[in-house]
Amino acid sequence: MNRITRSGAGLRLEAITFAYPGGASMRFDLTVEASDTVAIMGPSGSGKSTLLSLIAGFEMPASGRIVIGGEDVTLLPPHRRPVSMIFQENNLFAHLTVAQNVGLGRSPSLRLTEEDRAAVADAIAHTGLAGKEKRLPQALSGGERQRVALARVLVRERPVLLLDEPFASLGPALADEMLDLIAALHREQGMTVLMATHDPRDAERFSRTLVFVEGGTISAIGPTQKFLSGHGPAAFDRYLGAHRALR
Ligand code: ADP
Ligand code: MG
């Protein structure tokens, strides 16, 4: 993919505080190096999605600062941030084709230049969707729909990619395939990736750094290998143990 090149941006959350109406207060401090791969793990309801939403700008903090690539983005709306996000599901517009859904990453009005069209075609080829450009989302498998979401992220060329349990609705084989694709794109393009996941296998295969979220805050951060080899904090081992027991 030669038309789509980019690299990662470093990321910093400084004393970010946030609460949903009537909810408990959360607080996040976090530094991520440019081009790092980060797994965000923690119990259900601990604040993983909220953390990603704050970085993407879908939620606004009560106080604190978010700096991405050296720029203070705290007050910027989502579309002005150098960030793309993929959700667990419902990433696509049902009435638009694959090519149009991807094209939205370039232009919200779908007025595409030659260069935009070339980037869309590249991204579609790169995510293994060639030949399916004219299909509607309903005519795609769950895995293919997530690939379309990924292709749209690619044409946006943002240096930070956020993934919120993107494989949770896919079977294990498709999930592995998606993870391999994201890993390959990361090797090629070096974007900074933060991925919320429940699956320690995904974290192990993909991430260099692990962020452990508990009770609305980051309670630990360190090398994924260290955490998963039993040398992380005791609370993380307890979380993994409880999680394994559930599976
Ligand atoms: P996780 O992604 O780790 O499961 P979330 O970030 O979704 O956790 O949720 C953190 C906490 O905030 C939970 O207590 C959840 O119930 C609450 N919460 C999440 N979204 C909302 C919302 N839109 N309005 C009110 N409370 C919310
Ligand atoms: Mg969540």
From TrEMBL:
Keywords: ATP-binding, Cell inner membrane, Cell membrane, Membrane, Nucleotide-binding, Translocase, Transport. GO terms for molecular function: ATP binding; ATP hydrolysis activity; ATPase-coupled transmembrane transporter activity. Residues 11-240 form the ABC transporter domain. Gene3D superfamilies: P-loop containing nucleotide triphosphate hydrolases. The keyword GTP-binding does not apply. One of its GO terms (cellular component) is membrane. GO terms for biological process: thiamine transmembrane transport. NCBIfam families: thiQ (TIGR01277). Belongs to the ABC transporter superfamily. This is Thiamine ABC transporter ATP-binding protein. It comes from Chelativorans petroleitrophicus.
